[in-house]
Amino acid sequence: MGVPPKKDTVPRIDILVLPEVPVRPLWDQFQNQTVVGFQGDELRMRFPGASLTEALEGTFGLDLRQRGGSDVQTDLSVRGSTFDQVLVVVDGVPQYDPQTGHHAFNLAVPLGAVERVELLANGGSYRYGPFAFAGVLYVTTRGTGQTSSTTQSYVNGSAGQFGYTQVAAGLPFVLQKTHYRVTGRLDVETKASDGWKRNTDFDQVQVYGSARTSAPRGPLYLRGGWGRKRFGAQNFYSFAYPEQYEAVNTYSAQLQYGAYREVFRLYARQHYDQFELFREEPGYYLRQTDGRFMNTVDSSFAPAWYKNHNFHRNRTAGAEFTLRPLQWSMNSNGSTRFRLESGADVRHDEIVSNALGVARTDTVYFPRLNSPMYKGDRRTHGGIFAMGKLSGTQGAHPWSLQAAARIHYSDAFGLQFLPGLEYAVESKAHRLTLAANYATRFPTFTDLYYSLGGAQGSKDLQPENAWNYEIGHRYRSGKMQWQTSVFARQGRQLIDWLSNIEGEFVATNIRQATTYGTETYLQWRFPVAALEMLRFGAAALFHTGDVPQGTSSTYALDYLRYRAVIQAQSAEYRGFRATLRSQHGIRNGSFRNLDGTLTPYAWQHQTDLRVSKTVGPNMVLSVDALNVWNAALQDRGGIALPGRWLRASFQLNW
């Protein structure tokens, strides 16, 4: 008899050979957490609205708080977070703005350039550092591969009430030479409106391009864009001085070498912000020879302390490297595996301003207006991160356990240790996940230095910290998907702007506050001829802890307490299709009026409708009715949003 070979009991190590994917999906980075997402075509063609904000309304776990319609300014909130606690990532690059989270959604990406949007709603600091405190909104553009989406050309346009106009186009290109080949695409969009009431006008431009070529050891990508917004900011930041104006310009660029998990990136972002507490133009205020601003309507003057507008230039430059993952087979048949992923990043943030920061030794001038900026600040920070994932099968139930950690250092706030632990187990139709992670966020330069019109920052602010917890369950069958999460965020030293009866707003660390709640989401594809799909979502959110007596929270505790969203999509009939979305909710807390009194938030009900008609193989005509019932809406206390808004549009693809 022969001697049977010995079983291989020594773990085997493999360097994984992975396919080329220009940008790694968010769900693949956080496999044991709840990640929801939409494809770009779904957002463009089936959801009412002509902006990314309007298309994403009603997303499970995401609260989009607008100060004006059509993406004029949108603050992101995830499960009750503030706008500074959510990180936006575009094509793998963080878009965090060191001045303020109000600029987080000032993207250079037109809606037509979007391939998919994903949301992580339970914190991601162990991967992305002190910006992904509450969650990550991850935008992937059409990229530079050879998918049908990447190579598709389009042109669209729309017009509607309040002088609204919008035009967009996207075109792929190929540059072929003897020794190289470059593929890519360019997407452009512009839109404008006269405004639904005085000082709510706007105009916007977005340009985003990408290109790909082959290099000796992998693909090479170049991406970049420019976005501009100019808008009347009625009541945005002050009720005492309502006729405000803001203009922002965003420039972004990145160079990426490699694809999927083994990637090296260099990136840069520059953001200009011109904010006028008193809008300077005919019909509003004009600067007089003595330097004061006079209202051209009633000849009144702005307060004597207002000498100039606010001008800021923010610059961010960074680099990131992720290693090709290593995988060990822990037994002879490979059913139990351990995978290790790791990487490192570094970034430098800088602001130059006439209002924020400390005195500079030199003076920088704001473009075109030549206004001096003599203050500023800067900080450099970075970290190393690693994720180890053990996975296997117990009977017919696949499972995985992941431990992750990040060591982050900032020259302004020192060393931070950010761990995370996740577990998942699934069967044929069910999946259960458990996750916990520790998150941190640094104060923005506005938190530290702003001082104007009754608002006062604090140089003594400390980083805010929190433990994020989540238990999630997903059920999936052929026609139905049901997802439920129970979550909590246990915060310490949370940063908020507290208002008092005198109308002052002061940046403060709240000692502790915990938010907790539940969300449920159901998607059902109907076997009924008239109705193709029904989506239903509901959420409830609560908190413990409070602000000092005599003050009111401006941002941290005015979350969306109760919320329900229903979306119905009809089946196509003779080229016609309809989508109805209805949102209902109430916010926690109250907002402070001009006279110092507090007004509780009230229930809000918003219904949006799109009716579309397919004409031939390449064209779709649509009519959108936003806020169908003309309800009184406000996402920020005292800042009214547009009533009913009708628009008509066309989309031509080839």
Task: Give the key terms.
single chain, about 650 residues, mainly beta, about 5% helix, globular, disordered N terminus
Distance between the termini: 70 Å
Number of helices: 5
Oligomer: single chain
Fraction in helix: under 10%
Major beta-sheet overview: 22 strands, antiparallel, barrel
Descriptive notes:
This protein is mainly β and 654 residues long. The chain has one domain: TonB-dependent receptor, beta-barrel domain (Maltoporin, Chain A). Helices cover 4% and strands 58% of the residues. It is built from 5 helices and 39 strands. The chain is globular, with a radius of gyration of 25 Å. The N and C termini lie far apart (70 Å).
Condensed summary:
This protein is mainly beta and 654 residues long.
Topology:
Layout: E1 12-15, H1 26-29, E2 35-39, H2 40-46, H3 52-56, E3 62-68, E4 73-78, E5 86-90, E6 93-94, E7 114-120, H4 125-128, E8 135-141, E9 154-160, E10 164-176, E11 181-193, E12 202-215, E13 218-232, E14 245-259, E15 262-276, E16 285-287, E17 293-295, E18 310-322, E19 326-329, E20 337-353, E21 358-365, E22 372-394, E23 397-410, E24 414-426, E25 430-441, H5 445-449, E26 451-452, E27 455-456, E28 464-476, E29 480-500, E30 505-525, E31 531-544, E32 551-553, E33 560-570, E34 576-587, E35 590-592, E36 598-600, E37 604-615, E38 619-626, E39 645-653
Parallel strand pairs: 5-8, 27-30
Antiparallel strand pairs: 1-19, 2-7, 3-4, 5-6, 7-8, 9-10, 9-39, 10-11, 11-12, 12-13, 13-14, 14-15, 15-18, 16-17, 18-20, 19-20, 20-22, 21-22, 22-23, 23-24, 24-25, 25-28, 26-27, 28-29, 29-30, 29-32, 30-31, 31-33, 33-34, 34-37, 35-36, 37-38, 38-39
